[in-house]
Design a protein that fits this description.
The protein is α+β, with helices and mostly antiparallel strands. The protein has one helix spanning about 35-65; strands at about 10, 15-20. The protein has a two-stranded antiparallel ribbon with strand order 1-2. β1 (about 10) and β2 form a beta hairpin. InterPro entries: ENTH.
Length: about 70
């Protein structure tokens, strides 16, 4: 019987990512009020993009595990 290689993953709030993936520094604390609505939306967009990237990494990891 052939042995199968297992990928080691670590759990995150956005899913599991490969342990070899570099980690990002913790985000800066968000002030109670943004200086302007434009800055608030930019912050929300950046947060959403990070979440999407985490979900893509999780999806790719799970897809590779099935191959």
């Amino acid at each position: 019987m052939a042995s199968q290689e297992k990928r080691i993953t670590r759990a995150t709030s956005g899913g599991a990512t490969p342990s070899t993936e570099p980690t990002e520094p913790a985000p800066r604390p968000i002030a109670q009020e943004a200086d302007s609505p434009r800055e608030e939306m930019a912050s929300k967009l950046a947060s959403l993009r990070r979440r999407i990237d985490e979900e893509k990494a999780y999806f790719n990891t799970m897809e590779e595990a099935l191959l």
